[in-house]
Amino acid sequence: MSEPSSTSTTVAADLLVVANRLPVDRVVNDDGSTEWRASPGGLVSALAPVMRKNEGAWIGWPGDTGTEVEPFENDGIALVPVALSDQEYAEFYEGFSNDTLWPLYHDLVAKPSFRREWWDSYVTVNQRFADAAAANAAEGATVWVQDYQLQLVPQMLRELRPDLRIGFYLHIPFPPAELFSQLPWRRQVLEGLLGADLVGFQLSGAAQNFVRLVRQRVGHKTHRDTVYLPDGRVVRARAFPISIDTEGFEELARSEPVETRAAEIRRELGNPSTVFLGIDRLDYTKGIYARLRAFSELIADGELDVEDAVFVQVATPSRERVDQYRRLRDDIDRLVGRINGDLGRIGRPAISYLHSSFPREEMAALYRAADVMVVTPFRDGMNLVAKEYVACRFHEDGALVLSEFAGAADELRQAYLVNPYDINGMKATMMQAHRAEPKELSKRMRAMRKTVTENDVAHWASTFLDSLALDRDAHDKQTRPPHES
Ligand code: F6P
What we know:
The protein is α/β, with parallel strands linked by helices. The chain folds into two domains: 5-242 and 463-475, Rossmann fold (3-Layer(aba) Sandwich), CATH 3.40.50.2000; 246-454, 3-Layer(aba) Sandwich (Rossmann fold). The protein is 44% helix and 20% strand. Strands 1-6-7-5-2-8-9-10-13-12-11 form an eleven-stranded mixed beta sheet, with helices on both faces. A six-stranded parallel beta sheet has the order 16-15-14-17-18-19, with helices on both faces. Helix 13 links the parallel strand 17 and strand 18. The protein starts with a strand and ends in a 10-residue tail after the last helix. 47% of the residues are buried. Residues 1-8 have low confidence and may be disordered. 6-O-phosphono-beta-D-fructofuranose binds next to strand 2.
């Protein structure tokens, strides 16, 4: 992508997305030159058409530190960069977002750190995002704030601009009251979210957790999905399960280059009869260690043979300076080395491990090449990899082994569901998926494909935005709750 053209310093957008990352990342090359590269994720493809139609603006961090970049236009959308200093990167992004909230919201899979200076930085950076949104929104605009990094923005923004319609969407799980209550700043976070008119979650259980916490910790009246604020405003909390660009993935998977590449991948793996595949950000919530152990035990037990089964594990580098992530990388490196050392043969490693990120085309080729996709997080808001695999299996073949603790398991009921804490159970289910008859696989895959085709990311975005707009129309007619709950 070339250098963008600069626009005036503020825009007056009717629809604004406020997200931690811009849809493009600023990359500094070795020679010091800079370029913008599409940052991964389906959010922008879902929102791009509606953003273009509505004079949309996207407010986010450009992915590096220190540099102030003027707003610019990219692909018909105004992008408004919010700068982070090195210290804010360490305290707001790596610290409070990814070493406090991330583990706390994911069932305490790792121990969260509660550091007061990180919280201060979280407040400062949230205020900066709110200021940027306030400065760039037209009168009465709709602002859609995204994810756990920006939970204070709705309230901060409402204080600056009460004319705005504000939505918030949490992409990760929202924990039960028993866990959330550990957070020293629990009340401030709840009040931050209550600045929105509509708070969206992946699953209805998360929305219920939120409403219950608001009742318990803030003391507002609630009834079902609605919170009644003392000033007469109402806030709704509902589930909107996120999805992928299903058609785009299928089209890619059907393309000739991807078909050729998929065949090449299998050849390069030595034409095994079964390819197992895992693709994850290298994150301790994803259950990579347990899944590789399960696979290695199937080989050690003689259930599988390295001559005809291989596990391809792609682990995308992520948050590499955070301690827990650094340790995880070492643990996985050691485990893969040990498994291949103990069980591999010349030219036949049990696990083909790639610590790297790949473009969408290569991902589609991997999905096409894999017989059994193994997605086993201990906790995951949704898990889009599971949906991408399904979108790419247009021959209605292949098996999906899926953790019951991934949000996707709520919709993809025909997957081979597993409890990632139960290694023996996982081994048995992986074998069941591996041995399944083609007829059984196609019955399951057909049903899952129907789900991801009907519920794609465009459907997700329009359902959320329609609900936000509808609630605005209903707002004036709102009365007090029929009774307190
Ligand atoms: O889904 C959670 C999330 O933090 C997203 O907000 C983000 O796009 C993705 O994971 C990758 O994380 P990061 O932005 O920390 O690299």
